[in-house]
Structure formats: C-alpha cells, structure tokens
Specification:
Rossmann fold, 213 residues, 5-stranded parallel β-sheet, alpha/beta
Length: 213
C-alpha cells in the first residue's frame, strides 16, 4: 500500500518520479527509505499482486492462457509455477506483461489521483520494468538503483532459493543496467553498507525536493 505524506498548509505541485532498477538491486529498501523521508510510494510489484487476486480480470486471462496449472489449491496464483514458465520463454513473458501491465497502470493512475487530491508533494512510482515497457518517458524524473551483477546474483539466490543458473536467467531477462544508467536522472549505487545507502537516498531526496521547487 502507498505511504501517504502529511498534507502541507499550502498546496504545492505534485512531483511524480519513477524509481527503477534491475532485479535484486535494492529497489524495495530504497523505496522504504524514501517513504521514511516523506514520499508517497506506489509499488508496481504490490499492485501486480493486487490485480491478480481471485476474481480479477487479469487472473482470468492468465488462467485462460496457461491453464489451471498456475493456480494453487485455494484458487490463488502460484507465482513460482508462473515464474518458471515466463522466465524460460520470452513470448510467455511478453504475453504476461500484456495482461498485467494495463491493470497495474490503471490502479497506479487511481492512486496518483488520490495523492494529488490529498495534496501530497512527492509521489514515487516503483516500476521494475520502467525502461523495458517504455514508461520512462512518462516521468519527469527517473531514479535508478544499481549494484554490480555479481552482488545482485548473490542477493537473488539467497532470498529466492534459486540455483545460480536460474538466477542468471532472471538477471538476463531485463535490459542491462548499463543502458539504463545513461538515461536516468539520478543513479543510486547500492554496493556498500545500509548506512551508506541511506546517505545516498537522502542526497537523492534533496535533489527531488529541488526539482519539485
């Protein structure tokens, strides 16, 4: 769920920025830090889980394409089963994106409208596939979280219980971070300690507030 910031006494223009980064770069931790500083965070991964709940249009479309093998016994989506399919086949991955992304976009637009109505100052949309979907052009400011590939692989294997080969396949499924760095407004290096990361996020927050002006 998004984290609202307090209303200010005088209305100010809303700054809508995007936060992205390849898998296991540390986007979620950075987003939490931005929320602590006062940003309203709207996480696409959370919205993606919301829009595929039982009874939704997206889940019905997913079952229509891949069958009930991607469902758990209680009717909810078996994310592991679906992940093994889409990361092994680019066509399946594209088909899933075409089902889920429009629903996520619709829900995100609703939440941004609510934030604007509340008078929130900074809304940070966390979108892992920002560049892959061409959505980077929709935001005035793009923040990229990055870390060396070997560091990201170690994080991914540790947190997901994957073997190295599957982890590398997931890393390779996204646009190289080196290409994203050249078209990002702010790059946060997540290659050191949590305290160092927090200091970098605080610097990025100051930059955002200056842009919000």
């Amino acid at each position: 769920m998004p984290y609202p910031v307090p209303r200010t006494q005088y209305p100010v223009p809303l700054l809508l920025a995007a936060l992205t980064g390849n898998i296991a770069s540390g986007k979620s931790e950075v987003a939490r830090m931005f929320a602590d500083l006062g940003a309203t965070v709207i996480d696409a991964d959370e919205l993606a889980r919301e829009v595929v709940r039982p009874g939704t249009r997206a889940l019905a479309s997913i079952v229509s394409r891949w069958g009930t093998r991607i469902l758990q016994s209680d009717g909810t989506l078996d994310r592991g089963a679906l992940r093994s399919i889409v990361f092994a086949n680019p066509a399946d991955r594209e088909a899933l994106n075409k089902i889920v992304h429009p629903e996520v976009r619709l829900r995100r637009d609703e939440l941004v409208a609510e934030a604007r109505a509340r008078g929130d100052e900074v809304v940070l949309a966390v979108i892992p596939l920002l560049f892959e979907t061409g959505m980077n052009t929709e935001f005035g400011t793009v923040i990229l979280v990055d870390a060396p590939e070997d560091v990201r692989l170690a994080r991914l294997v540790k947190r997901s219980g994957l073997d190295d080969s599957e982890g590398r396949r997931m890393l390779a499924a996204q646009m190289p971070a080196s290409q994203k760095r050249n078209v990002s407004d702010i790059v946060i290096e997540n290659d050191s300690t949590i305290d160092a990361l927090r200091a970098k996020v605080e610097d990025a927050w100051k930059d955002l507030l200056q842009r919000q002006g």
